[in-house]
Target: 23S rRNA (Cytosine(1962)-C(5))-methyltransferase RlmI
Amino acid sequence: MSAQVVLNSNRDKSLRRRHPWVFASTIAEVKGRAKSGDTVDVIDDKGDWLGRGAYSPESQMRVRIWTFEKEESIDNGFFLRKMASALALRQRLFDPQQTNAFRWVASESDGLPGVTIDLYDNVAVVQLLSAGAEKHRSKIVWAITKLLPGTHVYERSDVDVRKKEGLEPVTGVLAGDPPSQVTIKENGLSIVVDIVNGHKTGFYLDQRDSRAAAGHFAKDAHVLNCFSYTGTFSCYALAGGAASVTNVDVSQPALDLAKHHIQLNGLDESKSHYVNKDVFKALRAYHDDRQQFDMVILDPPKFVDSKASLNRASRGYKDINMYGIHAVKSGGLLLTFSCSGLMPADLFQKIVADAALDAKRTIKIIGRLSQASDHPIIGSYPEGYYLKGLICEVTD
Model:
């Protein structure tokens, strides 16, 4: 019989609304023995059953709910059903001839807290970020190979958040013989994904729609792509008819791969330029030199990793956007993003607006961007919404 986690009085509201987290501060007691990752039943102070989830004794997020159905067991069949449902949705979203890489499982939003699976052609890259996901690794890998036979599986559970669960970083082959790099198709463009050493699981699939938007607006534009990483925004811009693209990134290996992407897609190499420099320093230099572009893309890494860091991160976003706005010609466009889940959308808009005031420019928001459709947001879990983007016309 599973251990039971008993909640304090009147601390059941979020679970009754099917939010999948139970925090340590809401728990009155644990009846029975529960080790890290074990399945536990959560009940209210009157003994009413609320949900079944994975126990994590070292995390403030003490239970992550697997199911709100009392008769549902957390077995091989459970993972197979959840992952089959998630796969069916993604297969409706994309033409595999044009796009063969997508987020297959988006953790809580697909009913599998702590589980992220990105599919790159025939290679699945798995991140297991919670004690429950760790416990059921073999079931998850079994379900992947059952649903897509012949798929190679590689693990990239090498992120700091695992420490909060009392888990060490883990990487390595889980099934098959995955290559260290795989070439995918995205909206017809070819992109090389480094699954072993690349950021996250190797690539930012969530920016697919934003890259397409950049391509749409790029015709005849001189484009500055900041935090360019492997240059995929620039590929879309050149494919959309950009006059030139300038990639700025602190990583030379990323810029080398960006150059390879231009060649791989048969785009005009003479229109592509590369600056290996800290973006803040590069933008200040452009400002000092009064150099401006028709389109500036700001896609920085996550600045906010805790609520305590929100104020500091807000200052960082304001600085980068002020200099980014300075770099846009009057009548040009700024595409600016925050991938920080703890950054509210209304606050991000205010930061960009304040940055424009400091730059003594006017911005007009003509579009909003978000994570691509394979990164869904389940209604009971608003935290699933994390990527915010604004398309702004900038004028003097």
About this structure: The chain has ten helices and 20 strands. Residues 228 and 267 are 17 Å apart (CA to CA). The mean pLDDT is 96. The chain has three domains: 3-67, 76-183, 204-395.
